[in-house]
Amino acid sequence: MKKSSITLLVLSIFLLQCTTTTQNERISTDAYLDFSNRDDQFEGGIKMIPITTPKGKFKVWTKRVGNNPKMKVLLLHGGPGMTHELYSCFDGYFPAEGIEFIYYDQLGSYYSDQPEDQELWTIDRFVDEVDQVRAALGLNQDNFYLFGQSWGGMLAMEYALKHQDKLKGLIISNMMASLDEYEKYAKEVLGPQMPKEVFQEILRIEEEEDFDNPNYEALLMEHHYQYHVLRMPLDEWPEAVIRSLTHVNPNIYVYMQGHSEFGITAGATLKGWDRRADLKNISVPTLVIGAGHDTMDPKHMEWMATEVQDGKYLFCPDGSHLAQYDDQKVFFEGLIKFIKDVDSRGK
Prior knowledge:
With 347 residues, this protein is an alpha/beta fold. It has 2 domains: 1-33; 42-180 and 270-345, Alpha/Beta hydrolase fold, catalytic domain (Rossmann fold, 3-Layer(aba) Sandwich). 42% of the residues lie in helices and 15% in strands. It is built from 11 helices and 8 strands. It has an 8-stranded mixed sheet, sandwiched between helices. The longest helix is centred in the first third of the chain and has 31 residues, at 3-33.
């Protein structure tokens, strides 16, 4: 065979391979975006899922983005009583990677039913709700990744301790395993970073339970939130974050968490929550995400990743409590790598 013929043959094979790869990628993208034959096509992925509780039946709001039979991520928002809107930035990263994800407002949150019976606001009932949502969405150990941030991270831990046989992967983001340790970190490490007179005034207001004092919120906004919740000037905070804060259900938040930003208010139902001793029972692949400027202690979260049986730690050095915004590249690169690494184990 002439040299020119061999060259043409090699070139033809190369071009064929490139064409095939491009076609496969296009088919994969088309499948990801295809809503046909889905029961949520009518509303573009939105589905109100019925759940059963000791106080009757209600509906919770969910929205699926994309299709992937092996990688489906259910997002648990913080609060309690916040909304899925905190995760709007996931739209900018997961679709490009072909990862299916589900926005979800827990019962009592803005887009879901909002019953007023306080007996509904317990950890066990929320865990049961998550499992009902999981079943309704067809999530199982072959595809189900559970992501939880802040209160959502607490709920994710609780879910894994009860139902980890349903999970493929677990992500605990910006949440410690002990609320007493969180309170200690806030008061001994974060608080003293403020001007002394500011921190003393905040503690005085909390001690007197004068939480309606407008100065309380103003001081926190100026000296705490824009350094440890979201490291951006307040007038630059993402619209979706502002929207979620506007939509928060204070009745749930105060009942479970309390008013204080430096721990759990006495009488709040989450007071004393501690799962440090139980982390060793979590065997599902787990990613723990911490951030250098978080309201939560990043060293504690690094330790958590060593306590679970199959853990990894992702540190966002420039991030705070909402690291998906203020250390976005590190956050999403690490999160996506974890999901794909876990998926590759099953091949």
